[in-house]
Design goal:
The structure is a single chain. This protein has 20 helices and 28 strands. It is an alpha/beta fold. The protein has 4 domains: 3-121, GIY-YIG endonuclease, CATH 3.40.1440; 130-336, Rossmann fold (3-Layer(aba) Sandwich); 348-388 and 450-470 and 477-607, Rossmann fold (3-Layer(aba) Sandwich), CATH 3.40.50.300; 614-717, ACT domain (Alpha-Beta Plaits, 2-Layer Sandwich). The chain has a 7-stranded parallel β-sheet with strand order 8-9-7-10-11-6-12, sandwiched between helices. The chain has a 6-stranded parallel β-sheet with strand order 13-23-22-14-21-20, with helices on both faces.
Length: 722
């Protein structure tokens, strides 16, 4: 008997191919079944979506329908809950459902044949016997005895998580032991339910190794080596496939991952943890442009899993949602204000007024002396500057030439270590010219500072300082201070980040210089001083989220200081600023996030900004800026001329504000001009309703004369940058 199947394939929203394609099959396949289907001249991966409703008659020519090439036998169908999650994500973020579904699956599933998949499945984990479970219980009891004692705040948080449905916002100071709360919550869940699974998410790849080490140390002795798996884009395709299959088959009880892990197939999911939930890395910048944090909350509601959002500096959206239930709050806020250890005080924040320092000084004299004091005591310091490279720009003082990228509306960054000018947007790289390309002046000079230049300058300032207790025949005066740098340039090679972090942990580094890579999540036990160099840039940014990001980044960086209780009493954070009286720094000095959040939320409410309004951006790309803007303006004009005539849309349109099309902040990238249009509404439901209907208008405009020359367009719901 012939059956007609609706199958999802990876088709982007702007392609206008529809969300599902029809295929012929000799057997009726369960929705969620993975199949190989012909698409054009190749076979591709597909997901059977709705076989029951696909018994179409007369809606298409049966002779033109191609047959399913094969099924991926041995892989059970994706769960109904997973299908509902993908459906919601595609609808909310205005993307093709096939684009979301297929992007959530490991890439190698699209490449391997059904026979090759079978070979991979034969390497599966054997089913646990009753003796295995008994042995795990014995090991669990031993592990409980060895686990660190919980503080009263940690115990209370765990009790609240156990007693309430959630979602929870775990608002804990840096060093308050949030990770131990995650470990205990997972441990209690797995002990209570022999089939349950837990998902633990981190914002960046570089944070997964240390988290995996802690979870593996805790749970591998209990449940075996396949209990804990990771999912992130830094893994090879075979590694990702192995982890995904392990989670899908429920062999893996714990999945650790970045934002992509929120779509992992976990049939027995009962707990979701989103660590550092404020981090913008949870928002995807391409494809479906989903927020993994928000999807985690929705998935928890969908599957009956508890969701714990953790941060020392929560996003203002989550903080707003965690207000008392009587005021409309939807999350339960759990507060852990104290660091672990009786003497583990929060670091002292010192503000240095750079207006009173020597002109062009990079390090103030008091800060430099404080760093020298740490070296003398055998302690470590961390210097934070969120700008990599040697200098942001090379320039010529004679003619005004600057190192602009020929393909982007941005400057190429000077990297002294390999004498290159490198664009951090398109990757275009050239050797540094011997003289100004415009006037021939040989005295071209760097302008500004990056981490590479900061490392060099700091090494010069500390050249006469010696490490304590290092006098030897080889070093009669003692060893020189060791300054190291960790950023995207020094950690390109595989394993380089781990080796550099290991050197810091071992005490082989005296002063660590780096970007935001080192400012969050790391447990540096010997660092007692953290210094932020030139953080003022975000104070007067046009981005309304800039103060929130700056406060969060500085608080997270400050949290790397004094994490050892024995050193906490003399831990310090130095902020070098030209605006020492700014309210943001005043709140930071007191470690008063609630005060800062209250001020910011008041300002946003007055200005009609998120979380009090809902926003979306429509972005367009073309070879010419005028073409991109013309497409957006034409689509906006259609709202007034076409949709306004539909009587049923009047209540919705009255709540929608369409702003004019403007160039993006970085207007040109890789010779592609980019424009955007902001769509805003006080009602999220109205915005979603409008965007869903407007997609047809955008597709029609794309096919019209206004779309000639347009490369692509995309909708970004809840954008993090405008």
């Amino acid at each position: 008997m012939t059956h007609w199947l609706c199958v999802l394939v990876q088709t982007p929203a702007h392609a206008s191919l529809g969300s599902v394609l029809s295929y012929r099959s000799e057997s009726l396949l369960t929705p969620g079944t993975l199949v190989r289907v012909p698409l054009g001249k190749r076979d591709t991966l597909g997901v059977v979506w709705d076989a029951a409703s696909a018994q179409a008659t007369g809606e298409f020519d049966p002779e033109k329908i191609r047959s399913v090439a094969g099924t991926l036998d041995g892989i059970s169908p994706l769960s109904t809950a997973w299908q509902q999650l993908v459906t919601f994500a595609s609808q909310y973020y205005q993307r093709s459902i096939g684009e979301v579904a297929l992007a959530a699956l490991p890439p190698q599933l699209r490449e391997l044949s059904p026979v090759q998949i079978q070979r991979r499945l034969k390497r599966g984990k054997p089913v646990k016997t009753s003796s295995d479970i008994e042995a795990a219980s014995t090991a669990l009891a031993a592990k409980d005895a060895a686990a660190p004692d919980l503080s009263p705040e940690q115990a209370n948080a765990l009790q609240q998580i156990d007693a309430n449905p959630g979602p929870f916002l775990l608002f804990g100071a840096t060093g308050s032991g949030k990770t131990e709360v995650y470990l205990r919550a997972v441990q209690e869940l797995l002990a209570r339910d022999p089939h349950a699974q837990a998902l633990v998410m981190v914002p960046e790849i570089n944070l997964t190794p240390q988290l995996e080490a802690r979870f593996s140390a805790r749970f591998t002795p209990l449940y075996g080596p396949d209990t804990v798996v990771s999912l992130h884009s830094g893994m090879t395709n075979p590694q990702r496939l192995k982890s995904w299959l392990s989670a899908h088959s429920s062999a893996a009880r714990i999945v650790l991952g970045t934002r992509m892990a929120v779509f992992a197939s976990m049939p027995q999911l009962r707990l979701i943890v989103v660590d550092e939930e404020h981090d913008p890395s949870y928002k995807s910048g391409e494809g479906a442009r989903y927020s993994a944090r928000d999807m985690a909350v929705y998935r928890g509601k969908l599957e009956g899993a508890k969701v714990v959002l953790g941060s020392a500096t929560p996003s203002l959206e989550s903080w707003h949602h965690s207000r008392p239930a009587a005021e409309g709050g939807r999350y339960l806020r759990l507060h852990m204000p104290s660091r672990i250890g009786a003497s583990a005080a929060l670091p002292l924040v010192r503000r240095v007024d750079m207006n009173h320092q020597p002109r062009h000084a990079v390090f103030s004299i008091p800060l430099l002396e404080a760093i020298k004091d740490r070296v003398a005591r055998g302690e470590q310091s961390m210097v934070f500057l969120n700008r990599r490279g040697y200098a942001p720009v090379l320039h010529c003082a004679e003619c005004g030439w600057k190192s602009e990228c020929p393909h982007c509306s941005a400057f190429r960054v000077f990297h002294k270590i390999d004498r290159t000018l490198r664009c951090h947007h398109c990757g275009f790289t050239e050797r540094v010219p011997r003289a100004c390309p415009t006037c021939g002046n040989p005295d071209i000079a760097p302008m500004g500072r990056g981490t590479e230049r900061l490392e060099e300058h700091l090494a010069e300032l500390l050249a006469d300082v010696r490490r304590p207790n290092t006098i030897s025949d080889a070093f009669p005066q003692g060893e020189s201070v060791r300054v190291a740098r960790i950023d995207a340039d020094t950690t390109r090679l595989k394993g380089e980040l781990q080796s550099q972090l290991a050197a810091v942990h071992a005490g082989d580094v005296d002063v660590l210089v780096g970007t935001q890579m080192i400012a969050k999540g790391h447990d540096f036990r010997r660092i007692t001083l953290v210094a932020a160099i030139n953080p003022d840039g975000a104070l007067f940014s046009s981005d309304f989220r800039a103060p929130e990001r700056l406060f969060s980044l500085l608080m997270q960086a400050a949290g790397r200081s004094g994490r050892d209780a024995s050193l906490g009493a003399r831990s310090e954070v130095w902020i070098q600023t030209f605006q020492p009286a700014h309210p943001l720094y005043a709140a930071l000095k007191q470690h008063d996030y609630p005060r800062f959040a209250s001020t910011q939320l008041t300002e946003r409410a007055q200005a009609g900004l998120p979380p009090f309004t809902a926003q979306a951006l429509v972005r367009a790309e073309a070879r010419e800026q005028d073409v991109a803007q013309a497409f957006l303006n034409a689509a906006s004009a259609s709202v007034q001329s076409d949709m306004a005539h539909w009587a049923e849309w009047e209540p919705v349109l009255s709540q929608i504000t369409l702003y004019p099309a403007v160039p993006m902040a970085i207007q040109r990238v890789a010779n592609i001009e980019r424009a955007q249009m902001l769509v805003e509404s006080p009602s999220r439901a109205a915005l979603q309703q409008f965007l869903g209907a407007w997609q047809a208008v955008l597709h029609a405009t794309r096919q019209g004369p206004e779309g000639k020359g347009l490369i692509r367009w995309a909708i970004d719901v809840d954008p993090l940058a405008i």
